[in-house]
Specification:
Layout (H helix, E strand, L loop, with lengths): L6 E4 L6 H4 L5 E4 L2 E4 L22 H11 L13 H4 L4 E3 L7 E5 L8 E3 L10 E4 L18 H14 L52 H11 L11 E5 L2 E6 L2 E4 L8 E3 L7 E3 L8 E3 L5 E2 L22 E3 L13 E3 L6 E3 L6 E3 L6 E3 L6 E3 L6 E3 L6 E3 L6 E4 L10 E3 L11 E4 L10 E2 L5 E3 L11 E4 L4 E4 L11 E6 L10 E3 L1
Parallel strand pairs: 3-4, 3-5, 5-7, 8-12, 11-15, 12-16, 13-17, 16-18, 17-19, 18-20, 19-21, 20-22, 21-23, 22-24, 23-25, 24-30, 25-31, 27-28
Antiparallel strand pairs: 1-2, 6-7, 8-9, 9-10, 14-15, 26-31, 28-29, 29-30
Helix pairs in contact: 2-4
Length: 500
């Protein structure tokens, strides 16, 4: 326990209005101490302490520690704490001098809750909870993940660490852009959904964010740096359709009162996975930074308004990159038994569709896309990707610009029989020699059956599995360029290609 008063620092704006709209300009500079005073005599200034002072509940303390301390509870909690996603260091302090102090008051100017920004004044960092909602479902003494009291506690902690309201200008006149100004992106706004007013939150009883959201994380990292040691190994994040629990490596990290999932993931590194294999609903999984994923309509928070039929636009949101560092990306995703859509990111992705007619999209690296059962669509994107359709009639879509070395995909299991009728789709914007529709038989040549002629555009070497595109059919102006390898050396004809 320390009685040293922590100094403060000024925080400059970044030029990114999404982040600048949350920066008050003040932050702590050094170890951040915290305390839970039990007596009003710990406070030197008049005001809140003089009106029915009381200490906060044990439940409030537990939730406050969850959001502050990486070491609190089990390691599954780590990535959701400020200490887990920033370089801030929290330690227990003296009740008279701690940077952050939490207490309750019935002060008439404090009907809800409030907090002071970082300051070396005696009130700097103090958090106060009012009593207006005592005995109701919004009672501040009963915070849970996803209820109003839990949201308020994290919101006020944000102020005490230097975050301002996203919806209103202060000393810093910036505000969060209107298309990001909702609790889906920051817990520091009063707008429940995009386009909402600021008169109060509209979400259902357990429809609040369960964590700091992506813009909060980004702004706090701007103030305190980003921590890449938290969950820096191979981490699996898993969810189930019958409960709102977020599991980290098999251990419950967030356990809300209701079956709602509404959180943001920050991960420090490693090869990480979103595991949705338990789901039977159509999934829309997006691994891109700042993206969001929908697992189940029934698990979306009801915001009682807004552009997404009144619901939150996603269950899980991905943190933004800090300084362009891709270590925080989630690399892999496992779908469920319905027809899912999964988008990868700039990392080396492994995407598994499982059952259903899935759509899998790689991005800019050497990805592995595996449809498994069902009639799947696999789009590798840039990079040397591995595409495995599995059972069913699958589509392998080639839509990215050519490269002689870095955009050659391996199709592992092309099958064209009565039970499975796989097909290659070629984008006419890239494969410019073709008209839309079926590939003409004269434009395809299996080189095992002779030399190519001037009309041949798709050249196949079955013994090696190599597929080439010849833009002019002569090789004079343009050399044939390899775009795929059929690993199982399937027999191909023009009927296996379609131009879109």
């Amino acid at each position: 326990m320390t009685g040293v008063i922590t100094s403060t620092k000024n925080v400059n704006l970044t030029g990114d209005q999404r982040i600048d709209g949350l920066i008050s300009g003040y932050a702590w500079d050094g170890t951040i101490t915290y305390a839970f005073p039990t007596s009003s005599t710990s406070y030197l200034y008049n005001g809140e302490k003089d009106y029915s002072f009381s200490s906060i509940s044990l439940q409030q303390r537990s939730v406050a520690l969850f959001f502050m301390e990486r070491s609190y509870g089990n390691t599954a909690n780590d990535g959701f704490s400020v200490e887990g996603f920033t370089n801030a260091n929290f330690v227990v302090g003296n009740v008279d001098t701690a940077s952050l102090r939490f207490a309750q008051s019935s002060h008439p100017s404090l009907p809800t809750a409030g907090a002071y920004y970082p300051s070396t004044d005696s009130w700097g960092g103090d958090v106060w909870f009012g009593t207006e909602y005592a005995g109701t479902e919004s009672d501040y003494r009963l915070p849970e993940f996803g209820n109003y009291a839990g949201h308020t506690l994290a919101h006020e902690l944000g102020h005490a660490l230097g975050l301002k309201h996203g919806h209103e200008p202060e000393i810093n006149p910036a505000v969060v852009p209107s298309n990001y100004d909702s609790i889906e992106y920051t817990i520091m706004t009063y707008r429940t959904y995009i386009g909402d007013d600021t008169s109060g939150y509209n979400y259902e009883q357990n429809g609040a964010p369960q964590t700091f959201m992506m813009l909060d994380i980004a702004a706090l990292q701007e103030m305190y740096g980003a921590d890449y040691t938290t969950n820096s190994g191979n981490t699996v994040y898993k969810w189930k359709p019958n409960e709102g629990v977020t599991y980290v490596n098999g251990v419950a990290a967030i356990t809300p009162d209701d079956n709602r999932i509404f959180a943001t993931i920050w991960d420090g590194g490693g090869v990480d996975t979103y595991d949705l294999s338990a789901y039977t609903t159509r999934l829309n999984i997006d691994l891109r930074p700042g993206g969001h994923s929908v697992f189940s309509q029934g698990q979306l928070a009801d915001l009682n308004g807004g552009p997404n039929n009144g619901y939150a636009r996603g269950n899980i949101f991905n943190a933004l990159l800090y300084g362009g560092n891709t270590a925080s990306l989630i690399e892999n995703a496992k779908g469920g038994s319905a027809s899912d859509t999964i988008h990868g990111n700039a990392a080396t992705n492994g995407l598994w569709g499982d059952s259903g007619n899935d759509k899998l999209y790689g991005d800019g690296n050497n990805d592995g896309l595996y449809g498994n059962e069902g009639n799947d669509r696999l789009v590798g994107g840039a990079g040397n990707d591995r595409l495995g359709g599995g059972a069913g009639s699958d589509t392998f879509f080639f839509e990215t610009s050519f490269s002689s070395r870095t955009n050659i995909d391996v199709v592992t299991d092309f099958t064209n029989n009565k039970q499975q009728n796989d097909v290659f789709w070629l984008d006419d914007a890239i494969y410019e020699a073709f008209m839309l529709g079926d590939l003409s038989s004269s434009a395809f040549k299996d080189r095992a059956f002779g030399r190519a002629d001037g009309s041949d555009r798709i050249l196949y070497y079955q013994h090696s599995g190599e597929l080439y595109y010849d833009a002019d059919g002569s090789g004079i102006t343009y050399d044939p360029i390899k775009f795929a390898i059929v690993e199982n050396h399937a027999t191909l004809t023009a009927a296996d290609f379609f131009i879109v």
